[in-house]
Specification:
- By secondary structure, the chain is α+β, with helices and mostly antiparallel strands.
- The protein folds into 2 domains: 2-88, Alpha-Beta Plaits; 100-275, 3-Layer(aba) Sandwich (NADH Oxidase).
- It is built from 10 helices and 8 strands.
- A hairpin with a 6-residue loop joins β2 (47-48) and β3 (55-56).
- The longest helix is centred in the middle third of the chain and has 20 residues, at 152-171.
- The two termini are 45 Å apart.
- Bound molecules: flavin mononucleotide (FMN).
- The site of flavin mononucleotide has 9 residues, from β7 and α10.
- Flavin mononucleotide (FMN) is lined by residues 110-111, 113, 239-243, 284.
Amino acid sequence: MAIINTALGRYENNILSVLNRMMNFTVDQDKCTKCGLCAMDCPVLIIDRKTEYPTIKEGKEKNCLECQHCLAICPQGAISIFGKEPKNSVLASAPIPKAMELENLMQNRRSIRKFKSEEVDKELIHHMLTMASYAPTAKNENNVHFTVVEGREQMDSLRQLVYQSLKDKAEKEEIPTRFQYLANFSKVWFAKNIDVIFRDAPHVVIASAPENGTSPLEDCTIALSYFELLANSNGIGTLWDGFATNALVDVVPEIKGKLQIPEGNKVFMVMLFGKSGRKYSRSIQNPGGNITALAL
Ligand SMILES: Cc1cc2nc3c(=O)[nH]c(=O)nc-3n(C[C@H](O)[C@H](O)[C@H](O)COP(=O)(O)O)c2cc1C
């Protein structure tokens, strides 16, 4: 679906009927009360409420963001789209964390630089990444891709690949001055086995997205923020890994091919995770946001 949408400009109108079928916008007439909420909430205003029951305005299918707001807002659960049935959604009345619980999580999340050697259950990793993909993306492009290292063995290979590539680049004097510290980390790794870049973590997740997307950096960062909070709520520590990001993006981008990053995607952010080897007894005390209440 996404592929057809992005390429739609190249198609003539006859594709629209195909697209309409693919959108599969259906209204259960026994349930629909014609309240009009679906049409009012549609961000691109392509739902017609003047028809007997809501329909997609002719010729406007290509504008659909695939956001599923129509399905989500219908109080009666009368609308399905893209084959998604309302009964399979999580009800908005399902329990959510109390504000204070969420605040506690946000205040007590720490950057973890010492991990236990044990691995996180693979199913849990995949579940958390699936949930992280609920993070919003600009224009609902939903193009963030997670490349995840599921265990120590792969992690060792990745570590070796990155440090060796940095070493090779350093020997050829091809590391820009501002990233010289990465050459030093590589030296420390080979001389003392100290892993400054990956902190001996058992897992890493690399967020990538098409470079020509609307806001790929923001999309990747927001997705990993979701992942971070969810991981912490599952007792798993995380570290935003700017060093690894710099290495993969700016210094040894050629190894991207070995990391199964999808073709055409650029790496935007790297995050380490695993069971924390540190236990913090209390939160830090942040100086507080820099806030200005606008007074014009
Ligand atoms: C985008 C980003 C990149 C970061 N990169 C690194 C890194 O490469 N290595 C590291 O040890 N910490 C890294 N950090 C962690 C910050 O140093 C850390 O968030 C900050 O010191 C506050 O500590 P806290 O996260 O425990 O509150 C990064 C944080 C962010 C947000």
